[in-house]
UniProtKB/TrEMBL annotation:
This is RNase H type-1 domain-containing protein. Residues 3-65 form the RNase H type-1 domain. It holds the Pfam family RVT_3. The lineage of its organism: Eukaryota, Viridiplantae, Streptophyta, Embryophyta, Tracheophyta. It comes from Arachis hypogaea. Coiled coil: none annotated. One of its GO terms (molecular function) is RNA-DNA hybrid ribonuclease activity.
Length: 102
């Protein structure tokens, strides 16, 4: 896809930490983690960071919907109905509160 700069955001702090670790040989998913790292090595700039689940709503909804689609790349001219509300809220700058237990 000729991508040289990439920002990877995940609501899984564990996944972010594993991708950022130097060695993951003893992890049960080490093969997958190594494959991800190999994809990132050829890029000019890569940032991998944790985001809260609320900020990942659209990606999560699209991933779940993608499990029911045929394999391949799917492009949308407009946001699909499942994420349209969230995209509009984000575009308008709407803020969502987050409850945190201490």
């Amino acid at each position: 896809m000729r991508i040289s700069k990439l920002v990877v955001e995940s609501d899984s702090n564990c996944a972010v930490e594993l991708i950022q670790k130097i060695s993951v040989e003893k992890h049960s998913q080490s093969t997958l983690i190594r494959a991800i790292k190999e994809l990132l090595v050829g890029l000019e700039s890569v940032v991998v960071r944790h985001i809260y689940r609320e900020a990942n709503f659209c990606a999560d909804a699209l991933a779940k919907a993608g499990q029911e689609q045929e394999d391949g790349v799917h492009c949308f001219k407009l946001p699909p109905a499942m994420v349209a509300h969230q995209v509009l809220a984000d575009r308008s700058g709407m803020k969502f509160s987050r409850s945190v237990t201490l």
